[in-house]
Design goal:
A hairpin with a 3-residue loop joins strand 6 and strand 7. The strands form 9 sheets. Strands 1, 2, 3, 4, 6 and 7 form a 6-stranded antiparallel β-sheet that branches. This protein has 14 helices and 29 strands. With about 575 residues, the protein is of the alpha+beta class. It has 3 domains: about 170 residues, no CATH class; about 270 residues, Rossmann fold, CATH 3.40.50; about 120 residues, no CATH class.
């Protein structure tokens, strides 16, 4: 068994040699003298300017000492892993230092955002805790700095492990709050379906965020605490915090209305992010939404392949087949129709739509326009005409932010009015207005239509690039380079972390590699297969390497990525 002393001697021996000599360390492991700390070097960077080396360490539970209550359920374990990852990240920020050329001296970890997601950066296992880091092995120019490398690998990392992963060195109250909050959020979400609710927003929640790119809560002095109107108030039970009271949004068609800048989109954004749990003190810890709620928007220019958009669009002037609609450059209305039908195919049970990012001609068509352009000249059946049939036929609810049109009043089950970020139930007023303008109401469709199943064809999903059999790179949270194809996920606002995007890319490659996309299985069957694999074997099942940069994703976002491959080919299921 190689020890850290052996590693120290190797580093002294290769000090000053060319950088490739670091490769002698790759795929090796080194133990502390007591055997309770293990360092594993999985990948060594090619030079100090390349992507950092992949290094893991393990610390046995003889040292960590976390009590059973901290990881006694899956939600608690995930919260503990996220909490410890944040602590490790802060520690890395303190000890990471420039130690030569390029990335020399860098020490970092894939750090969670506000959402609590299952990740591969830190794993709590039966035998201990495993941490996966990115480390810039130090060099002067392209010559190995053995002394600095010894400081990092043999001194800093073992000390990091002891200081961040030993229960008796950490704040027990913060750990308890983290794991209990996450367990309670799961418990709240589990009650939604039985209570016939789509979403729940606890009283005293703080919904506004610092900015569109910063999901941390707005300063408390500038934020208004959420308070449910009496008519919508419900109380749900949690195992740790007891009863939690707040606003329940029921199944059916819900409108969120109000003046500009009064919090309509802020509420919808909290609902769409409520498909995930949030860390303690986020302000949205007890804002929960069904996991199968999908945000929908228009997406001009996206590629669409073989999607049946006929429930909304028929008789196009160019004669295009809308039962298997294909285009390289969708319009606002056709893209939104395709986004809805794809979400339904992947199992969405509720749709979230904000009129600000929707196609107007897809959402509404008032009576004056109907008089000017006769129905036989208009290929679009607006969403307002189909929304009730979608709910009655398929059980799919809708939550819509509507600020510019009252055409949805006659079809709404609930109308929430936002006034200075506080909700009111104004359903009765909306119904009275609708009754007074009944003659101008849009005619409702009696049926929605079929949700068609499709089969992606394997020859159209190619991860190869040049000589590489598999080339999948994530350039940002919303872009995947898959082989020669660029997958644009900009419109998928429920992807909240680049780690999710990397996992989606890895899952696409896995589905090709394992022949899950075989031309016979439908989208639904492919999604079930991948989700079941991850559920039983973890995210590590997606890769042959021990990656520390993956996070759990939803089936709907995987399906959306696959649907956005520009060379995708489809057969009907």
């Amino acid at each position: 068994m190689n020890t850290l002393d052996d590693l120290s001697q190797i580093l002294r021996r290769i000090d000053g040699r060319g950088y490739p000599a670091y490769k002698d360390l790759q795929n090796c492991s080194y133990h502390s003298t007591d055997g309770k700390f293990e360092l594993l070097i999985d990948h060594v960077q090619g030079d100090p300017f390349a992507a950092p080396s992949s290094i893991r360490f393990r610390l046995s539970h003889d040292i960590t000492g976390f009590p059973d209550w901290s990881h006694s359920s899956k939600p608690r374990r995930i919260a503990l892993e996220n909490h410890l990852t944040r602590i490790v990240s802060e520690y890395c920020g303190r000890i990471s230092r420039r130690a030569g050329s390029g990335k020399s001296g860098l020490i970092d970890i894939d750090t969670p955002g506000q959402e609590v997601l299952e990740r591969t950066a830190l794993l709590y296992t039966e035998t201990g805790i495993e941490v996966r880091l990115n480390v810039g092995l130090p060099a002067r120019g392209r010559r190995i700095s053995g002394r600095e490398a010894k400081q990092i690998l043999c001194d800093d990392l073992p000390q990091l492990a002891l200081d961040t992963l030993s229960f008796n060195k950490l704040d027990e109250e913060k750990i308890r709050l983290a794991v209990e909050t996450n367990e309670d959020a799961d418990a709240l979400r589990a009650q939604l379906k039985d209570r016939k609710l789509i979403s729940f927003i606890a009283n005293a929640s703080s919904l506004p965020r610092r900015s569109g790119i910063d999901q941390k809560p707005l300063d408390s002095s500038s934020s208004i605490s959420f308070q449910s109107p009496d008519e919508l108030t419900v109380t749900l039970e949690t195992p740790n915090h007891g009863p939690v009271t707040g606003m329940g949004i029921p199944e059916g068609i819900t409108l969120i209305v109000g003046g500009g800048f009064h919090g309509k989109s802020t509420l919808l954004n909290a609902i769409e992010r409520g498909v995930y749990n949030h860390c303690a003190n986020d302000g949205r810890e007890f804002v929960v939404t069904r996991a199968d709620a999908v945000k929908i928007r228009a997406e001009d220019g996206r590629a669409v392949t073989g999607v049946d958009i006929s429930p909304f669009i028929n008789n196009l002037p160019n004669g295009a087949n809308t039962t298997a609609f294909t285009t390289e450059n969708a319009s606002g209305s056709t893209s939104q129709a395709a986004n809805i039908m794809e979400a339904l195919e992947s199992g969405a049970d509720s749709l979230l739509i904000d009129e600000d990012i929707a196609a107007t001609n897809f959402m509404i068509r008032d009576h004056r326009m109907q008089e000017l352009v006769s129905p036989d000249k208009e290929p679009i059946t607006p969403y307002v005409a189909k929304v009730r049939a979608l709910y009655h036929e398929h059980g799919v609810s809708s939550i819509l932010v509507i600020g510019g049109s009252g055409d949805y009043f006659p079809v709404a089950d609930l109308v929430i009015g936002m006034d200075q970020y506080l909700p009111q139930d104004i359903t009765q007023q909306a119904r009275q207005i609708a009754a007074a303008h009944q003659s101008a109401s849009i005619k409702q469709s009696n049926t929605f239509g079929v949700i068609t199943k499709r089969r992606p064809q394997p020859e159209s999903i190619d991860p190869r690039k040049g000589r590489r059999e598999e080339s999948v790179k994530t350039r940002s949270t919303h872009h995947i380079q898959f082989g020669e194809s660029d997958i644009d996920l900009t419109a998928l606002t429920q992807i909240v972390s680049p780690s999710q995007t990397r996992a989606i890319g890895a899952a696409l490659a896995y589905a090709v590699r394992e022949n899950i996309i075989d031309g016979q299985q439908s989208f639904t069957e492919i999604l079930d297969c991948i989700c079941n694999k991850i559920q039983h074997s973890g995210l590590d099942a997606l890769s042959d390497n021990a990656r520390g940069d993956l996070a759990e994703f939803r089936r709907h976002d995987f399906a959306a990525a696959l649907n956005r491959l520009r060379h995708l080919k489809i057969s009907p299921a």
